[in-house]
Amino acid sequence: MNTHKDILDNLKTVCQCKGIKKGAFKKLIDEGKTTPGELNKASGAGSGDCQGRRCGPRIDDLLKSHPRE
Ligand code: FES
């Protein structure tokens, strides 16, 4: 069952170029991804038009604020 926070995370876009939501990154972190490089490789983030200039800092912040479950 989705919590209210899960629903919001699935609406919040972290990588705008690729349309990848916060919830997708949190799922990858929970599956064991621990670095920005691993998240980018698994999700495709960082390979859009901006080459990660917009989403890179957000992904760094997410890794700090969402410890693996
Ligand atoms: S916002 Fe993620 S590659 Fe541009």
Low-confidence stretches: none
Structural class: mainly alpha
The number of helical segments is 4
Largest sheet: 2 strands, antiparallel
Q: How would you describe the oligomerization state of the chains in this entry? A: single chain
Helix content: 40-55%
C-alpha Rg, in Å?
A: 11 Å
Features:
mainly alpha; 69 residues; binds FE2/S2 (inorganic) cluster; globular; two-stranded antiparallel ribbon
What does this structure look like?
The chain is mainly alpha-helical. The chain has one domain. It is 49% helix and 7% strand. Strands 1-2 form a two-stranded antiparallel ribbon. The longest helix has 11 residues. The protein is globular and about 35 Å long. It starts with a helix and ends with a helix. 23% of the residues are buried. The model has no long low-confidence stretch (mean pLDDT 94). FE2/S2 (inorganic) cluster binds next to loops.
What does the secondary structure layout of this molecule look like, with pairings?
Layout: H1 4-9, E1 13-15, E2 20-21, H2 22-30, H3 36-43, H4 55-65
Bound molecules: FE2/S2 (inorganic) cluster.
Question: Would you kindly provide a brief summary of this structure?
Answer:
This protein is mostly helical and 69 residues long.
